[in-house]
Amino acid sequence: MTQMPHSAACRIVSGAEYVEQITALESDRRTRSAFQDLVLRIAPPGAALFDFGAGPGIDARFYAERGCTVAAYDVDPKMCEFFALHCRDLMEAGRVTLDGGSYRAFLARKAVEERGVDLVTANFAPLSLVADLKELFAKFHAITAPNGKVLASVLSPYFLGDLRYGWWWRNALRLWRHGRYCVQGSQAPIFRRRLADFAAQSAPYFKLQRVFRGLPPRRGQTANGVDVSAGARHAWLHLTTGLFMFLLFEKCELREPRSPP
Q1: Is the pLDDT of residue 14 over 70?
Q2: What per-residue confidence (pLDDT) applies to 6?
Q3: Domain boundaries, the chain
Q4: Which pLDDT band, with edges at 50, 70 and 90, does 174 fall under?
Q5: What is 6-251's CATH topology?
Q6: Residues 71/51, Cβ–Cβ less than 8 Å
């Protein structure tokens, strides 16, 4: 999935041009660093990661250089082309693998991992380009280990900086009533979802456990986020100062359907 820098949301930006833009702004660099640091805190040493919407491979390379093995997927051919060049040495060493192709083909493809994935990562909001998250979480459930997790960076509907835009006000009632809304982006509709909608969309495969501001922690502090597993009603107040929010999901054990008596 091509994750678009918000500074260039009027048209599709991919490959080398995307890298140039997404690394130009200090805010984007800080957001990426905060997500990467959180991944390293959550993932066990030597973890098997699956990088969904991997883009040009910036994150995949970062994780692999720190001891993880990374399987990556992106739907955009230009992103995959840049990824293959950027991570070529790690791919040759077997530390990184890349999968492309259509999104429907990705969902239909059977998992071939010998060991389950410890952590699925999705940085810079690829999940915000997906209309039906339930089938995606079903896929994540199929490829993850029993204690697997998903850490996703998504666009926050609570960001106060968006209140200056007419599209936010036009969709505010829809967000309140239905838990989500979408606006047309250059590549696809872009979805903004409340925490409750993410919790509902991920069930029964995963449970939304914690939510973090999509910003580096303040000096001297650790990013612990807010525990929403018990239904914290005011967690959204923690998310008003950043364009992104980081969501941590924990895998659920699916119950076998009962046989009829």
Answers
A1: no
A2: 43
A3: 6-251
A4: very high
A5: Rossmann fold (3.40.50)
A6: yes
